Amino acid sequence: MRGAFIVFEGGDRCGKTTQCKRIVEYLKSTGIACEYMNFPDRSLTTGKIINDYLLKKTELPDRAVHLLFSANRWELEPKIRSLINRGTSLIVDRYSYSGVAFTSAKEGMDLEWCKLAEIGLPRPDLVCLFKSRVDVVSQRNGWGEERYEKTDFQKKVCENFQLLKDPSYWQEIDAVGSIEEVTENLKPLILETLEKAKSRKLENLW
Ligand code: TMP
């Protein structure tokens, strides 16, 4: 039986990384085979270039950097499929939806063009979209260190996530409670998805 493919999405500093890790810890503690994965994976060949770009050490044309983010996912595509097919569930911090929502928030970038490089990647069984208020997250430590941490840009990103939202496999998560409360609310949803995935075929984007 295959594992589930679950993605957490949202604007910057909305708390989803913390929740991803807490969910992985929780699942492991109950004996469920699962792994944490995150995009961009900065340890990969493409990830190093992306990291320099995000830290504003290098400049790249918007389309080129978009394709690098996509290539970063394609680098791990065989691993994603193999783990899932072997029964390991994946809890993934950002995926193609961030790719599209962030690039298409840039001037002159078309959302449909942004989706093209993602065609054929495995489609998650569940996307948890973390709702957050930009005025709240922008108060968090270190805000502004990375390229996209700007209030107006993040608002546009959130609007783009709404355009990508597919109610058949997306759930919005209210990320304003305490860390513990958010994890507790997530648990039943994650367990239900793990169960359903066992008898469902892994689909592709889009
Ligand atoms: P992180 O803070 O989750 O490591 O993500 C780094 C930044 O990269 C964040 O601002 C979102 C952005 N991003 C993209 O622009 N395209 C992508 O495909 C991904 C995965 C992230």
UniProtKB/TrEMBL annotation:
InterPro entries for this protein: P-loop_NTPase, Thymidylate_kin-like_dom, Thymidylate_kin_CS, Thymidylate_kinase
Domain Thymidylate kinase-like span(s) in chain numbering: 8-184
CDD domains according to UniProt: TMPK
Molecular function terms from GO: ATP binding; dTMP kinase activity; nucleoside diphosphate kinase activity
EC number: 2.7.4.9
One Gene Ontology biological process: dTDP biosynthetic process
GO cellular-component term (any): cytosol
Domain of life: Eukaryota
Family from the record: Belongs to the thymidylate kinase family.
Full protein name: Thymidylate kinase
Organism name: Laodelphax striatellus (Small brown planthopper)
